[in-house]
Here is the input.
Amino acid sequence: MFPGVLEHKPKKYGAPGRLFATLYPSPITQSLTVAQVSVATSKQGIVRGVHYVAAPGQAKHVTCVSGAIWDVVVDLRRGSPTFGDWTAYLLNSGLNSLYVPVGFGHGYYASDDAIVLYLLSQPYDPDLEREINPLDPDLDIRWPVKPVLSPRDASAPLLRDAVDLPRWKP
Here is the structure.
């Protein structure tokens, strides 16, 4: 839906009980310089996000390596014709990946216990990490079920109160 947000379904090799697939590099990560690799776990029913990183921003290559997530990407580029719009992808242990460029927020609902692998363009810096409440009525994200939120995500600001949002560059 958004230019630059790309999904990749890798070619898989294997036999019953085995799987081999190349996640990186892939056609969707040609412009991604990996500065950090991280992993997150989430129990079924948990929503994480919507998170973003203040300037210089952070691009992400997201892969669910176990379980399943309903992955949401939100356009946070002020002035963009799609500012505040969102789209969702199902990522699961089929190892499809999602490239989320700088300027977009990211969150997900764990529909099964999940392990999520991130390739990041910038190292984690807690001073630059920002969030928007995933239940913001202006975003109107239609989560598959009533989400369970961490205290941090539940108290996150609404989009209209968010700080350090990037500007859209046509």
